[in-house]
Amino acid sequence: SDGSIRLHQMTSEYPLMQWNDSTNGRPIIALQWALTRPAVFFVLDASSHIYIWDLLENDLLPVAKQIIPSENVVTMALLGEPEKTNGLLGIALAKESGQIDIQYVKEKWALP
To answer: How does pLDDT run across 27-80, given as a tens digit for each residue?
Structure first.
């Protein structure tokens, strides 16, 4: 609810990494790991901002941020095939109106 993200190892109750206030205090609605690139994850906050984290590039801050204009996004899901190395990774965004948008991610965040 405060925008904090914690990375845990299954064998410990304490986080390996913790990023406080990663969304400027806005609640996190969804967080998903990339299906095609293990070090990348995506965060959706309550103000319809999507943050892209690539832990191999920068483990302190997101490497990109995208604002989805015009309407609130209520959830997201990642689309891709982990067994394929074609670099196709998409994000399905469900909006408040019921509309679904699909956006493709740049190859540099999708390639294994």
So the answer is: 999 999 998 888 999 999 999 999 999 999 999 999 999 998 878 999 999 998
Residue identified by tokens 């190859």 is 107
Number of domains into which the chain is organized? 1
Q: 44 is in which domain, residue-wise?
A: 5-109
69 and 101 in contact (C-beta within 8 Å)? Answer: no
Q: Which long-range contacts (CB under 8 A, 24 or more apart) does 17-23 make?
A: 17/59, 19/60, 22/51, 22/62, 23/49, 23/51
Question: Measured between alpha carbons, how far is 74 from 97 in angstroms, rounded to an integer?
Answer: 10
Residue type, 80: G
Whether this prediction's pTM lies above 0.85 is answered by yes
